Every structure is written in structure tokens, then in C-alpha cells.
Here is the input.
Amino acid sequence: MAQLILCSFLRFISKRQKVNSKKYMTDSVKFWAVVPAAGVGKRMQADRPKQYLPLANKTVLEQTLMRLLDADVFSAVAVAISKEDPYWPELELSNHDKVITAADGKERADSVLSALKSLRDQASDSDWVLVHDAARPCLTSSDIHLLIETLKDDDVGGILALSSHDTLKNVEGLNITETIDRSVIWRALTPQMFRYGMLKQALEQAEGNPAVTDEASALEMQGLQPKIVEGRPDNIKITRPEDLALAQFYMEHQQ
Ligand code: C5P
Here is the structure.
């Protein structure tokens, strides 16, 4: 039974890998990637930030950046890096001609805003920006292109998301107060895709607001309704030590 599930998962993966990566390059609007990579990742309890932990002969951050560069759609990838980060200058990719290093910010949203500002002289307000967590190294080209294909004519933009398979509970202390209707609950993933001008303005207006934990929430505060696009479950965020082994497994079977 387990073998059957694994085989159909692998078939599903190889089918979704086949995409035409050049089809957006003819449009005048450009695509930019922004990667907030300035977090410390306390929950990993490691000797270095989680984006620099080893994964399949590279660091997590290199794997993530390679996925974005290999999608062959971005004019550049702006990466927000902590001022005290000794690891970044050691990576060959930090000198890649499509990689721009930006300063960090206090929270994730501040790092994203800083990276957006680093693109100020090159990006137009109507260009699209895909913001992607440094700690999601299993992102596939197929999901990048699915997001772009679905939203490229949208007024607002949107995010990759996953529906919830588990029953969800509202809890106070350790007591369940309510069962939530899971059909209306989605888990927000990245990339999150918005117009450069709209996203920059939304993040500037939301600055310092702790409720802004992703880009979509900043747009929601403007009264807008970003779309969701169902993403792949293997686009996991490295959060705990065991996630590295799972990411390694997914990467081996995505080839
Ligand atoms: O901690 P968490 O996994 O939610 O962070 C999501 C992403 O935001 C990570 O890629 C992390 O490096 C980044 N981040 C950042 N600047 C901060 C805090 C987090 O770029 N101040």
C-alpha cells in the first residue's frame, strides 16, 4: 500500500515538472523574485541560521535560489541578508549576476520591503514580484509557472496555498472550544505574487504591524482579496530538525 502511494506520488511529480519556462519572456512586464533570508531560525536549535544548514551537498539557501534561477523567468533575485551574516559572502551564488544582496529588516516583512527597495531603479510598479521564503528549498518550476500562469492577468495577485486535511480545533488553554469548518481554511505557502508598486505600498503602510506575517496579509489590510492557487505539498518550510530529512527525500524524488 505504502509503495503504491509512493509510486503515484512520483508519477504526479514527474508529470508536473514538464513546463515551458520561456512563455512569459515575450511580455513587456517583468518578473522579480524576492527572498527574505535574514532570519535566525531558532526552532532548528542549530549552530547557524537554518538557511545555511547542509541539504543535498549545498546549503538550504543555495537550493532555494537555484530553484528560482532555474525557473528562467526572473530578471533578478533580490535576497535580504542580515548585516552580521558571515556565511552569505562565502557562497558562490552571492556573486551571481542575477542575484542582488539587500539589507535585512527587523521582521520578515521589513526584510521583504528592504529587498523591494533594492529593485527600485530597475522594477516598474506594474511588474510582478514573487516573494519566496529562503527556507523552502523544494519549490518546483511547475509551481512557479502554475502561480504565474494563473495570476498574470489578475488585478491583485495571490499565493500558493494548501488545503487542510486534518480536522481543525479552536482551543483555549488545553480545552477544545469549537471545531472549525476546514473547507474554508487554507495554509499559506510561498511564493506570493503581487505587483511591485502595490506590494511596496502595502508593506510601507503596514510597517511595524505584527499581524503582517506574509505579503498577502499586507494586501488584505488594504481591503483587497488576494487569490489562492493550490500548490504542491512538497513545498515545505524547513522549521524543525526533522524537516531536513524530509526535504532531502522530496528533492531526490523530484529529479
Ligand atoms: O521564521 P520563519 O521561517 O517564519 O521566516 C520566514 C522567512 O523570513 C525565512 O526565510 C527567514 O530567513 C526570513 N526572515 C527575514 N528577516 C527577518 C525574519 C525572517 O528575512 N527579520
Summary: Helices lie at 2-17, 60-70, 108-117, 141-151, 196-205, 215-220, 242-254.
